[in-house]
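Before relying on records like the one below, remember that each one covers exactly one chain. Contacts with other chains, cofactors or solvent are not represented anywhere in the record.
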Amino acid sequence: MSGEKHDADSNTPPAEAPAENTEGHKDDDDLESGETNEAHTKQNSDVEDTAVVTPPAVTSSANKISSSEGLLSPSTSTPGAFAINNPLSDNPIAESLRNVPTAMVTLESQASTAQSATNVESITAEPISVVVADPVEDPHNGDSSKNSNKSIKGSQGDQGRIQMFVAAAIAVLVVLVIALSIALSGEGSNTSSTGGDILSVSSRREDMIDFLGRFVDRNAFDPSHPDASEDRIDALRWIVEEDELELSIPINGTSIDDPLSLRLLERYVVALFYFATNGNDWVEQYNFLSQYDVCRWSSAFTDDSNDFNRTADIETTVNAKGIVCDPNGRIFGIRLWWNNLSGTLPEELKYLELKQFIVTGGNMVGTVPSFFLNFPNLENLSLDNNCFTGNIPDGLSDLPNLSIVSFYNNNYEVTGNLEAFCSSSTSFREGTVAVIADYGVDCSCCTLCDHDRYECDSLMWNATWLSINIGKDDAYDSRGNVLQFQSECLSPEQRGWIDDECPCVVEDVANPGIKICDDCTSEGSRPSYGN
């Protein structure tokens, strides 16, 4: 019996050749059948498929942003703004604060889905080799013998084809199962990944509450508890269910100084600030609650670009509104003025390391929080033109870097003593730039304002000016009303002054782009409120 030659790429063992014809020759049909049998016994033995998944790496960068207070600019559109010809317009710390280094924040890539990828093992279809002897030819029934031999070999070929079909079907099924598994594991609407584990929204919520429980009373997140906080529940829900960035939640025991912990905590705090100040009613959103890193929640970024807005107008970059970060991606400033903020300041702001807190020109209520005393690097605290009440926290003057303090136009409701910022009645202590409050605050060197007449007096400069903000477009809401005149805590005296002195506004002919009060008789004038 002689072996047949096989394809070098086939792993299939050779089928034995048919037995020799007892009469010393092969029938022509037998030779043809032998060739057919050889063709059937050659099989493609390897069916292999591999699913490879490469998780994307997401990188967010924040470029250079220049920062200067701009509070004392002659333009009345900036925080703590005064009327044109303000003698305090030269800000000695503006240059030192003008350049903020580039903030680079590298986002963590999503949890690797490589664990979900499964190698498909090689599947080999092993054909069944059948040894068939040549039958003794019946001289009376030669055709019948030939037909029988052909029938056996035809059945053998059918079995090989069936085996190949089954093997291919199994391989396709395995690949489909793997692809479906990967697709399901990548869904982000109802699940999020932490350390490679797929967690339900409910589990992620509990993990987030465990994490925040180190900073906030857990009862604040329980809607059925008397101490429940709607703003905190909203911030938690956004982080867990809606935040497209889906930061991983640190496991129990992770240090608060861990970069992951700090980043998640800051994102929660700023989201809470948004809800607590009724962010849906803001004039501009500045990317708040977007999928971007919090360092991009700023007017310095466009909605669809990773780059800062580049402009020749230095005021645009110096007076950027929103969140400002340091080179390490840590928040050091919240700068929002004349943006229709209302509500109260959440206590969790104390977990930030702020240098600037400028929230002016709105309807903020409540007392001035004492947590500002926890910011040793605080340079600018401006809360003017709001509806705050209560005493200024004792010890504010002990903050060594605090150079700008502004509490004026809070309807005489913010009181206290700021004398420690003075070295005399005509000079500030070293490093102080401006201290402005309403009459009733004890401070011999401060600029003090008459809330009812929108008039401020500086003993140091022996000057008086109006403290209204009507000059530029950002002083108005979408209907053209002066935002300052929409305050919810306007006194009857203030409303009377507006009706008598500034019922309308008109563009200043001498200063194009700047608006001034008008008695509604000039061409082009329009009402200052009630539009």
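The first helix runs from residue 28 to 41.
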